[in-house]
Amino acid sequence: FPTQGSLLYLDALHAAFPQALAPRSTALLSWAPARPLAPAGWPLPTLYCSPPETGALPSRTAALRVQLLFALQARSLRVLEAGLASELHDALATLRSGWPELAQDLALGRLSPQNGLPEDLRGRLQELLVPDAARAAELRAECARGFEGIAQRLWPRLQVVVVGTAHGGERLYLDALRQAECKGLSLYCPFYRAAGALLGVNLWPEEPEPRFLLCPNWAFCEFLPCPAEDEEDQRTVLLGELWEGREYRLVLTARPGEYRCRAGEVLRVAGFNKQCPVVEPVRRESQVLSVRGESIPEERFCQSLCRAVGMWPGARLIDYVCVESSLLGASSGVCAPHYEVFVELRGLRDLSEGQRYKLDHCLQEDFPVYKSFRFKGSIGPLRLHLVGAGAFAQLREALGSPVPMPRVLREERLLAVIQSTVIS
User: Fold this and answer.
1) Core-most of 155, 319, 333, 410, by most CB within 10 Å?
2) Does 206 map to a domain?
3) Checking phi first, is residue 84 left (phi over 0); if not, alpha (psi -120 to 50) or beta?
4) 3-class DSSP state for residue 329?
């Protein structure tokens, strides 16, 4: 992780929010069992209010709950920080469902026993908690009022929410936070990473849409213009040859001696800053649905799904994944290959058959190729399943590593987790 990237991030954060780097004024909600590091790239013990070992617990759920408890203890927070937008989303979902128990722990200055929290570590962490009945009463009062804008109500001095990754599939969580728990706060995504390498930094913390300055000496980047007229004869271009407004596929050599490869990322050049390109991530090419070669990108499918959800009165989309029916084998039935979609909703308990068909109808309107295959019968009707609250938190726990969850499932073990939570 280039030190220059960390320094640029901290400088940009301080320039936009001068109080953000005050000692013990940042709560870190991030699970990194192998190597606990903050999104800044190194441990900063004087900056964070929670003990560093909380991020290295064997259980993701336990780690986020313990970190949330230490964050609630610190009323004067300036920054909420998370490695992924989904981690902050899940931590605040724990607040929604478990605030009475959290308030009791705050009042008694204790750490409740829970799965994935070793007893010896629980004892050491409990010594750092102080009984605070007044703070517990404040937590109960604010949660009883509802959860819209809860972050700023619980932490009145909070200035900004920092998430290490917020593009691709993580955008859904970022939008949900912006509309509900973190309403009214700036959401800042400081870094752009691909294939394990840091490529760019966001120097504009107060802008709602993240864009990243590509730094030329962090990795060797090449770019393939997209779309390409002739894929075979196409040549790559370098940083100095990019055009504003165009989209490019990223070809990456992360470090000297490593293989040159396509990173599976598509970027749009949004402009330039002192001759260095400023880019916006557009999509990940690996996240594509294609049972008959129709190739529906993840972000386009998400747009169709959100449009369909807008036709279901009172419904709000919390999360989703999509599976190609071949992964289900015989359990998918004898009809033509099709999509199996699993969604978590808030505000709606069930869907009629007509409502479920809305998503298939939206896909046909948005993708003529899909409509053609549906008309011919070579792609079967989409099947939509509702899952219970917290189903996707279980799925992220099952991933076993702090990486963004794929929107297109291709692993049977992950499919089994989400199938076990289906309610209709």
Assistant:
1) 319
2) no
3) beta
4) helix
